[in-house]
Amino acid sequence: MRNIRITVQYEGTRYKGWQRQVSTEQTIQGKLESILSRQFGRKIEIDGSGRTDGGVHARGQVANFRLKEEETELFHQNMEELTALLNGYLPEDIAVLGAELASDRFHSRLNAVSKTYKYRIWNSPVPNVFDRKYVWQVKEPLDVQAMERAAGYLLGEHDFAAFCGNPRMKKSTVRKIYEIRIEKKGPEIDLIYTGNGFLQNMVRIISGTLVETGLKERCPEEIEEILESKDRKKAGAKAPAQGLILWEVKYD
Amino acid sequence: MRNIRITVQYEGTRYKGWQRQVSTEQTIQGKLESILSRQFGRKIEIDGSGRTDGGVHARGQVANFRLKEEETELFHQNMEELTALLNGYLPEDIAVLGAELASDRFHSRLNAVSKTYKYRIWNSPVPNVFDRKYVWQVKEPLDVQAMERAAGYLLGEHDFAAFCGNPRMKKSTVRKIYEIRIEKKGPEIDLIYTGNGFLQNMVRIISGTLVETGLKERCPEEIEEILESKDRKKAGAKAPAQGLILWEVKYD
């Protein structure tokens, strides 16, 4: 079997997220699997580096799937041809940026060593027309310094249970955030998170909490208490899906 | 009467262009006029710096309209309040970036001294997901140097009849192009045109002709003959509307 790794870009607006669901094909994984299965005439499953929620976008989602040696003849073992083949069938809001042969042991989720998410905020009373599907529009001015101070408390290894959207989470809620960078470019404020992994809704709940801090509804020091409480109700509201982009997944 | 100048941004995808039409409200001018007329309880007409075709976008369209002194009470003569009022009623693909009081003689079309249009090309076999509604996707590699040489022949004052989409154009087809800048940023190639005015479809026909040159279907020197011929059939195909953005309109 050949293990093939692909990098996928998508606008999540029309989809119920990455993960295949029984009832609907409106997921990114479902779209990719149905195209692959149709092309190769058998059921092909694909593993992603992680789920993204409905409405969340990806600039560089990574996934992998296995083909039989003889099946790679369909694209003459040429990865650019495979990329073009898939893009020819994908809708215009999903694209395969590239494909490559991976080692047999490669697994897009298990081997990921870090992930970067970007949360884009459009902080202006004047609406953003062109990027409106990729930003959260917040009209009231945000105090970026307060947000940066709050973000500082989240760095490093913590139990992020208070920032986890899954109340029945059985596995460990400990994660490590390597960096939170806040970039201000004109009216746009980007929150860029890099960590070893993120819990369900974690980036959106943190972003919502940081925005509440920027609006002075909270003070930065509260973050410590929220972390310690491990109580979802203490953290802020989940920021809207549309501002979030899975930016990059890194492997060793 | 007070003469009010506004700067308008829009994604043209859903619209039949700037100019109001009798049969439909699906124009930018029509949307703005119906909101203003509803707010002020009388028919208000608005002048734009020029038409844009159906599907063409604007980053900085300029328009003006007149209000009676007492009508400005509705927004307390506060231009930010007027901007917020209009944005509150506009659909999310149209936004007013700002409003200001203009001199009584100001006319957005007649007083414009230069206009800048940007034509965005995504030149890659890999599709562009996020900006797909704002670019023309051309898969085959373009020879930017050939396009730059061709563009050189278009600079200055010429009779652009061969690049005019209106076969019944009665008025002068002489225009002056001050600059054509070609910017390459990764797979994106932007054609940025500044001139004293542009004929109907002129930027799209020039862009289509430059792309044919970049694809080596034409040689740059042909531009001279095309200009001299004054024959629309000699020029290239009109580039798709979606790549075009009215970037900026300048006044004295």
Rg estimate of chain A, integer Å:
19 Å
Oligomer: homodimer
Note the gap between the termini of chain A: 22 Å
Low-confidence stretches of chain A: none
Mean of the pLDDT scores of chain A? 96
Count up the helices of chain A.
Answer: 5
- Chain pair sharing the greatest interface: A-B, 24 and 24 residues
Strand content of chain A: 25-35%
Amount of helix of chain A = 10-25%
Outline of this structure?
The first copy, chain A, is of the alpha+beta class and 252 residues long. Chain A contains 5 helices and 10 strands.
Salient structural properties:
5 helices; 252 residues; 10-stranded mixed β-sheet; Alpha-Beta Plaits; globular; 2 domains; homodimer; alpha+beta
What does this structure look like?
The structure is a homodimer of 252-residue chains. By secondary structure, chain A is α+β, with helices and mostly antiparallel strands. Chain A has two domains: 2-102, Alpha-Beta Plaits (2-Layer Sandwich); 113-251, Pseudouridine synthase I, catalytic domain, C-terminal subdomain (Alpha-Beta Plaits, 2-Layer Sandwich). Chain A has five helices and ten strands, in the order βαββαβββαβββααβ. The first copy, chain A, has helices at 28-40, 79-89, 144-152, 202-214, 222-229; strands at 2-10, 47-48, 57-67, 94-102, 112-122, 136-137, 156-159, 174-185, 188-195, 244-251. In chain A, strands 1, 2, 3, 4, 5, 6, 7, 8, 9 and 10 form a ten-stranded mixed beta sheet that branches. In chain A, helix 3 packs across helix 4. The mean pLDDT of chain A is 96. Chain A binds chain B through residues 9-11, 57, 59, 80, 83-84, 87, 92-98, 125-130, 132, 134, and chain B through 9-11, 57, 59, 80, 83-84, 87, 92-98, 125-130, 132, 134.
